[in-house]
Amino acid sequence: MNGKFQETMRAELERLEKEGLSLRIRTLDSEQGPACTIDGKYVVNLAANNYLGMIGRKDVKEAAKKAIDEFGVGSGAVKTIIGNTRLIVEAEKKLAKFKDVEDVLMYQAGLTANSGTIPALVHDGDLIFSDELNHASIIDGCRLSRAKIVPFKHCDVASLEEKMKEYDNEAGTKMVITDGVFSMDGDIAPLPDIVEVTKRHGAVTMVDDAHGEGVLGDHGRGIVNHFHLEGQVDVEVGTLSKAFGVVGGYVAGTHTLVEYLKNKSRPILFSSTMTPADAGAILKVVDILTESDDLVRRLWENATYFKARMKSYGFDTWRSETPITPIIIGDSQLAKNLSVKLFEKGVFAQSLGFPTVPTGLARIRCMLCSAHTKEQLNFAADMFHESALELGILKT
Ligand SMILES: Cc1ncc(COP(=O)(O)O)c(C=O)c1O
């Protein structure tokens, strides 16, 4: 063992601990649900991305089990060798229809979809205009591409246009990339304006719809449907690991885009495909969403209700416009203490500090689910209030 190497890591861990930034990873002892058992304690769960409760649905689980019975537990290879099960092909077709695009390509995760798509599409000599609060997987993809990265101010179209003007005379592909719904703040990108500016400057638009699908648009079809921008966004990336309840990611767009990525995108060429269970479950999830928008409506009802209760207690829910509900605390140690206290009282909500969110804007992020009951939401809001009073975060 290299002692100096170990010491460097230990020192960094100590620094993180001292600054309230070290991560405590909890263990789920039961199915992920609106309430569940975490580290042996039954709690109301305000931390999962399980927006529509798909993870625990009997019919979705049955679909996954059936897929395992027919195809086994693993995919056994990368897509381009022999990992491309019939279920994946069917899921790609079904999702393409649902999203109203020509084609879809499944990835192993949203992270690999972002970090593996961007470097396939833009290269050294090209330009990427990236919202300053884009997700880490977009940032990784941008860095891997070796293109010049030009950040623009968060959700600020004037800032985007100003930056684009500076590079109007440059050759090469220009790509504008934005999250659809921002995962830490819960606000929505001004996509119609972004598309308009992007087109005017001859660039390509890419949006990450990770927190939009199952949440925004008709029956949860996502941000493009929400803004009626079908056919105008060049690259749509998404994850199946949030509202869709499984693990996986995808890219949606034209046949040409998908064929190109099949040949060029490294996670497609060098990492095994999604499991049969995930693909089988996705087929069912898309059917459920196509048939009814009941779950999406219940998700929004719960989000609106919870946000109003938290505001009435004096909490700051920042600029959230979606079921992602940040509760801004400021200091990262205080946010962590609040999360610990909430857990003791039977509520799990994760605190987040730097580098996940900017310094001074530490928060507890509450994730709402269609399956939360009003009793669970009332209990959670009351425990937030009680804990915040005890810690001196709120005065009344
Ligand atoms: C905006 C955004 N994009 C991509 C991802 C990655 O998705 P996945 O968990 O499927 O890798 C996340 C997950 O945190 C996200 O919030």
Q: What's a concise summary of this model?
A:
The protein has 396 residues and is of the alpha/beta class. It contains 15 helices and 13 strands. It has a seven-stranded mixed sheet, sandwiched between helices. The protein has a three-stranded mixed sheet with strand order 1-2-11.
Question: The CATH topology of the largest domain is what?
Answer: Aspartate Aminotransferase, domain 2
* Intertermini distance: 54 Å
Average residue pLDDT: 97
Compounds present?
pyridoxal-5'-phosphate
- Top CATH class of the largest domain: Alpha Beta
Query: At the fourth CATH level, what is the homologous superfamily of the largest domain?
Result: Type I PLP-dependent aspartate aminotransferase-like (Major domain)
Helix-strand pattern: HEEHHHEHEHEHEHEHEEHHHHEHEEEH
Radius of gyration: 21 Å
The biggest beta sheet reads: 7 strands, mixed
Strand percentage lies at 15-25%
By oligomeric state, this entry counts as: single chain
Unreliable segments (pLDDT under 50, ≥5 consecutive)? none
| Total strand segments | 13
Helix proportion: 40-55%
Adjacency order of strands in the biggest sheet:
3-9-8-7-6-4-5
Tally of distinct domains:
2
Structural class: alpha/beta
CATH architecture of the largest domain: 3-Layer(aba) Sandwich
